Amino acid sequence: MSAIWGMVSFAGAIPEQAATQMTGPYEEACKIDRYSVSSEKDLFMGCGIQYITKESEKEGLPLWTEDRTVCFNADALLDNREEFLKEFSCAENTPDGTLMFLAYKKWGAECFKRFRGLFSVAVYDREKKTLILASDKVSARCLYYYRTAEYAVFSTLMKPILAVVPDLKRNEWFDRDFLTAPGMMPNISAMETPYTGVLMLPPATCLTIRAAGIEEKRYWRPSADEKKYRHFGAKAWGKHFTEVYGQCVADAIRTDGEVGISMSSGFDSASVGVLAADRLKKAGKNLYTYTYVPFEKPNVNLDRNHVMNEKKDVETIVAAHSNMIPTFTDNQGKNCITDLKTVLKTLEIPIKAFVNFPNLFEIAQLAGERGCRVVLTGQCGNSTVSHGYIDDILYDLWSKGHLFRFLLWLNRYSKTVKESRKKALIACMSYYCYSKKEYCAENFLYQPDNPFLKENVLSDYPMRERFRAGGICHFSRLPLPREEHRKWLQQDAQYTYMGVWETKLGLKNGLVFRDATKDERILAFSYAVPYRYFAYRGTPRWFIRGNMKEYLPECVTADWLRYSVQNGDYFARITRDWDEVKDFLLKELECAPERDYIDKEKMREFLQSLDGTSPEQDSLVFDSLVFVLCDLIFDAPRK
Q: How many Å apart are CA 376 and CA 287, to the nearest integer?
């Protein structure tokens, strides 16, 4: 595994200082085992190699053809390396980068669709004066680039690009996307970044960059092979799921170091964890689990079905696996504002998930210190392996006219959760009739609800077009039918965002994050499977609940209304440290630049009005303020 960076000149020589300027940020911010560079008059390529696997110690990147006309560089961890070992009759310890280089020499840019795993690639052809950049199928390894008619520059981190192109301005489109979009996503464009002209590779994309322009080619999307699975019933689909999921997890734990996991008691990370533990046990290895637990008593009184402290359930899971070694973390009791600027500097983007990242940072640090080279997650599970909210699947059945199955499954669900079947049916009819009307009308009624934005935030900003181009679902309060679910599986922006934090947090701690729930095989499975099986016979999240009973304890699978809530004490911590938090936010607000569409005075008044004694009613507004402030104070790559 590697970080890659470089600069090529289409005419003339690259600046002498480019190599130093681009390598410096990696030496400053990353835990890298070995650096390797190749510098020519018209080209510089750097590679920071992490020893994730045994063969990576022999990695020789960047690599040149014998006539030194083509230079190949890669940040890669191949899951199907056995295919290429056989294809090229290579020794077992041949590094992934070498295998990819051999594949490129044989098939050219067509090779990228053959690779399975994590990668970003840069190839410069000196004779053709072309730079090829390619990403894996979910952009798990982020890669930025910037191009002019004279040169092109690329980098895994953004700061090296800003070092050699220092006069770049903030991207107003990105800022307004960030401020107006619903939910926790910071971006609605898969390619745009906070800086004008600096772009990011979207998933499964191959770019050919020349002085005259850029040619973009998409080489893969999840698709459905209806004929291949036409004879499958529930039993066959369940078996196919466990086989595919198990193989994805098995591939994700390939390392000669230790393996850790950021694990809650929820279906996604827990299912990854138990599958990984079984496979690691056969190899005589442990799985180190890291689980967040509250430090303070949460202020919020949530529904009894919400689990605020997952320690007990995680201990039950761990007890069934002798090689699971648990660690329960609480971020040392710190509030989520304390390290906000460190988070922004590391991730190089403004964020909305400011509550969650301090815990992820702590887990990555603890895992790295323990010798973990791989840390597993289950970030995409709600859309893939554990998808199947009952409202979504029942709506899909009802809207497509499968009324008998709809009534049968609604009846079974209601009996299991002890809910009145008559009331459930009445509620469904009202909700679903309204939803179908909204979907048919395709109304776009969304308006930004952040109270600290001025009305002119939408001036000259085509919000409707931006949202739809980015695949942002503006039907967020409606049930999700199959068509919308498939669109979500193909939403590039979510993958580039996850790739950013996985790549950069991994580089910081000398490890790699792996998420089997967004493996290309799981995405293809989720796209192809008949939608009804996600909640088969009215059982929510059936692929986990109905097919992994032998792996997960009943306390996790049997309660259909159980939902885990992580970071439930975040506002209790803020309340406890209110004077310190308030002073920090006011200070940062005063130093932040002015923006025409942000009401800094209103932000100041709101902060001054809070005394920290009864904050619950203000928590959502407070979150909105932090979102805006993250965008205002963010300039991490320049500092």
A: 10
Query: What are the tens digits of pLDDT across the range 506-544?
Result: 999 999 999 999 999 999 999 999 999 999 999 999 999
The vertex-313 CA angle with 553 and 237, nearest 5°, equals 35
Of the given ranges (46-55, 166-175, 228-237, 466-475), which has the lowest mean pLDDT?
Answer: 466-475
Measured CA to CA, the distance from residue 634 to residue 631 in angstroms comes to 5
Contact present, 381 and 269 (Cβ < 8 Å):
yes
Mention every residue, 6+ apart, whose C-beta is less than 8 A from residue 361.
339, 342, 343, 346, 505
CB 139 within 8 A of CB 158: no
**C-alpha to C-alpha distance for 639 and 637, rounded to whole angstroms:** 6
CB 77 within 8 A of CB 119: yes
553 alpha carbon, distance to own chain's centre: 27
Cβ distance 257 to 285 under 8 Å?
no
Confidence of residue 613 (pLDDT cuts 50, 70, 90): low
User: Which residue's structure tokens are 């300039």?
Assistant: 635
* Nearest Cα to Cα of residue 313 among 322, 326, 296, 329: 326
Other beta carbons less than 10 A from residue 604's beta carbon: 16
User: Are the CB atoms for 556 and 265 separated by under 8 Å?
Assistant: yes
The SS3 call for residue 438 is helix
Angstrom distance (rounded) from CA 83 to CA 89: 10
Tell me: the pLDDT tens digits for 482-502? 999 999 999 999 999 999 999
CB 569 within 8 A of CB 298: yes
Q: Got the DSSP string for 351-413?
A: -S-TTTHHHHHHHHHHHHHTTEEEEEE-TTGGGTTT---HHHHHHHHHHTT-HHHHHHHHHHH
pLDDT above 70 covers a percentage of the chain that reads 97
* Owner of token pair 């099986």: 533
The pLDDT tens digits for 446-464 are: 889 899 999 999 999 999 8
Q: Closest by alpha carbon to 263, among 254, 276, 252?
A: 276
DSSP string, 506-527: HHHHT-EEEEGGG-HHHHHHHH
Q: Determine the Cα–Cα distance for residues 58 and 515; give it in Å rounded to an integer.
A: 26
Confidence of residue 476 (pLDDT cuts 50, 70, 90): low
Q: Is the separation of the CB atoms in 625 and 453 below 8 Å? A: no
**DSSP three-state, residue 53:** coil
Residue 591 CB-density burial (10 A; 0-12 exposed, 13-18 middle, 19+ buried): exposed
How many Å apart are CA 482 and CA 474, to the nearest integer? 16
Lowest mean pLDDT across 26-35, 266-275, 465-474, 485-494: 465-474
Instruction: Grade residue 636 by pLDDT with cuts at 50, 70 and 90.
Output: very low
Residue with the two structure tokens 């230790």: 258
Report the Cα 125 to chain-centroid distance in Å: 32
Among candidate residues 70, 61, 88, the one with its CA nearest the CA of residue 5:
61
Contact 7, 24 (CB under 8 A): no
Question: β-strand 144-147 against 151-155: which pairing, if any?
Answer: antiparallel
pLDDT at 443 over 80: no
